[in-house]
Write a structure and sequence with these properties.
mainly alpha; two-stranded antiparallel sheet; 7 helices
């Protein structure tokens, strides 16, 4: 197993571990509008334009408000330079430095910095694409918690919202802007990456990592408030 494949496997394992470990905790109810309306979510069929019908949930119209331009900018800044993103970048750069992958950067502090900068460039480009395309297509990139739901439902929500996003009417549909951003960004970055990691296969591995990181971020946002209330109360 090469370094790129090992890295993808570890990202997937970390995602599952984070979801499973956090679920053992229960915390206070909080919702997108500081309400307890998670219990009142109704099931319906959401059918996006030119897309298949999928059975999903609707965000209560009394609680959900479509994302504004200011909130979209705030999402971009937080997702790109927020604590979770910066910590993930440090982990990714450290992991790559330990494996000397790519080898052109070498296993040094300078190499760590180059790997961190490369990851940050990719994240900022992808987030900008998702925010921009999402504004055109009416997709909300934010994650919404379900603290009042059962643990299994919350884990499924973490997984599901990696691949779907709310629309302006509060329904969920496939996150086309996210698909385009993660895929395009990772193939585009081949133009400035080192030769040993600039092939189509490496771009494919990075795409899987991108969705794995998004899932891990969803798990953190879903369960961290519960864990924090237990640990620091």
């Amino acid at each position: 197993m090469n370094a790129a494949s090992l890295r993808a496997v570890l990202f997937a394992s970390a995602t599952l571990a984070l979801s499973a470990g956090a679920g053992a905790q229960q915390g206070p109810a909080a919702h997108v509008a500081a309400s307890r309306e998670a219990q009142g979510r109704s099931q319906h069929l959401a059918k996006p334009l030119d897309g298949p019908a999928i059975k999903t949930e609707r965000v209560p119209l009394t609680a959900y408000r479509p994302i504004t331009g200011t909130q979209r900018i705030a999402w971009f800044l937080g997702s790109t330079g927020g604590p979770v993103s910066l910590a993930s970048g440090a982990f990714s750069a450290g992991f790559g430095t330990g494996l000397d992958d790519p080898h052109e950067y070498r296993g040094t502090w300078a190499g760590f910095g180059k790997r961190y900068a490369m990851r940050f460039t990719g994240i900022s480009t992808g987030n900008a694409m998702e925010a921009g395309l999402g504004a055109i297509w009416g997709e909300d990139p934010r994650y919404f918690r379900a603290p009042g739901a059962a643990f299994g439902s919350r884990v499924w929500r973490v997984i599901r919202m990696t691949f779907i996003a709310p629309r302006r009417d509060g329904s969920f549909a496939p996150a086309y802007a996210r698909y385009a951003a993660i895929s395009s960004n990772n193939f585009l970055s081949n133009t400035w990456r080192m030769p040993s990691e600039s092939g189509p296969g490496h771009a494919g591995i990075r795409i899987l990592e991108g969705f794995g990181c998004r899932m891990a971020g969803n798990a953190f946002r879903e369960f961290w408030p519960d864990l924090k209330s237990r640990v620091f109360r």
